[in-house]
């Protein structure tokens, strides 16, 4: 009988070994707060290509040389997890794999069925802990001041998933692996309808559809980088000292890439807001695949050059990777083609 627990432990240890050998933790702490799986694949000298795959999410090839294919037909979080799954196949020395869409979408990390392929269980576990290692969970929880109890709120789990770049369900089952949830709680959390979570964050604003992600940013997210896509919504929720005459204003925003679609205030706690600070909620909608900065300043209208506070985030709304080579590998590929043709 296959010992799936041994396979999962092996995958977990090997993912940690790869983090250590490539210095990934230090790089993530200095960067976006995400593990860059595409960069890792490239650093291992494995070609990575994005393309339309009929009925498949990803492919791992070994002959004549290793290579990874990832579908262009899925959201960014699914592309990243698929790439990490294929990386697992490579790093763990697995045989070639055609990872079918139906199988991968109904599979959850660490959730075992008796007829599962041990190689797929191992690759799935590797992907989950590679993209969301315990130290990365701690990094985001420290920044957001979240405790384990706070992670029983689906809004916080969803926001964690966005920041680490994994799907909501993969994040839930990885938190179960880290004993944040018991199995029953994890199952209930995984079954939460994301549309309702997004509606809770948007507080009455109705987008044309709920296919995009909804980011909830506070002062704890100052200077972070959002990696989203066109169709996403960004809700900035900041304390505003309006009783003293200070109001938040938009300092920098590319209206063609990210446009303000809602703006309002709400009291803090039981306070009626009269004479005291309130919460300002500014909602912006992503319009295009673009990069830029969203900058706000809290200042008195009669003294705009002397802000009390500032807030800024950078954004990358590129969304899912499109057809072609992983961009940093593309130049290397064409240089090799040119040398071969010379």
- Please write the string of helix (H) and strand (E) elements: HHHEEEHEHHHHHHHEEEEEEEEEH
Helix content: 25-40%
The residue ranges in which pLDDT falls below 50 over 5 or more consecutive positions are none
Number of helical stretches of at least 4 residues: 12
Task: Give the termini separation.
Answer: 55 Å
Q: Averaged pLDDT, please?
A: 92
Report the CATH topology name of the domain at 4-134. Arc Repressor Mutant, subunit A
Tell me, what's the shape? globular
Specify the oligomeric state. single chain
| Radius of gyration from the alpha-carbon trace, in angstroms | 22 Å
CATH architecture of the domain at 4-134: Orthogonal Bundle
Let me know the number of strands.
13
CATH class of the domain at 4-134: Mainly Alpha
Strand order of the largest sheet: 4-2-3-1-13
The computed structural class is alpha+beta
Strand content: 15-25%
State the major sheet: 5 strands, mixed
């Amino acid at each position: 009988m296959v010992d799936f627990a041994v396979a999962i432990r092996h995958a977990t240890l090997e993912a940690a070994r790869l983090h250590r050998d490539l210095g990934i933790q230090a790089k993530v702490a200095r960067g976006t707060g995400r593990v860059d799986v595409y960069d890792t694949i490239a650093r291992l000298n494995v070609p990575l290509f994005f393309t339309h795959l009929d009925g498949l999410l990803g492919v791992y090839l070994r002959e004549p040389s290793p290579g990874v294919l990832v579908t262009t037909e899925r959201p960014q979080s699914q592309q990243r997890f698929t790439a990490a799954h294929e990386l697992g196949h490579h790093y763990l020395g697995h045989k070639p794999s055609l990872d079918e869409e139906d199988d991968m979408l109904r599979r959850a990390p660490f959730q075992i069925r008796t007829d599962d392929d041990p190689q797929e269980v191992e690759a799935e576990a590797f992907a989950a802990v590679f993209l969301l290692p315990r130290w990365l969970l701690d990094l985001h929880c420290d920044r957001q001041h979240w405790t384990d109890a706070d992670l029983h709120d689906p809004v916080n789990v969803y926001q964690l998933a966005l920041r680490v770049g994994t799907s909501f369900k993969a994040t839930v089952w990885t938190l179960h692996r880290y004993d944040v949830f018991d199995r029953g709680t994890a199952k209930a959390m995984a079954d939460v309808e994301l549309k309702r979570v997004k509606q809770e964050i948007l507080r009455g604003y109705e987008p044309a559809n709920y296919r995009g992600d909804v980011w909830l940013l506070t002062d704890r997210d100052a200077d972070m980088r959002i990696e989203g896509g066109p169709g996403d919504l960004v809700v900035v929720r900041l304390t505003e000292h309006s009783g003293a005459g200070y109001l938040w204003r938009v300092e920098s925003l590319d209206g063609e890439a990210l446009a303000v679609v809602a703006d309002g205030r709400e009291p803090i706690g039981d306070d009626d807001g009269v004479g005291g600070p309130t919460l300002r909620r500014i909602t912006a909608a992503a319009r295009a695949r673009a990069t830029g900065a969203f900058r706000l300043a809290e200042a008195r209208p009669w003294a705009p050059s002397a802000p009390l506070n500032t807030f800024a985030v950078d954004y990358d709304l590129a969304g899912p990777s499109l057809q072609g080579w992983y961009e940093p590998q593309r130049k290397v590929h064409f240089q090799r083609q040119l040398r071969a043709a010379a």
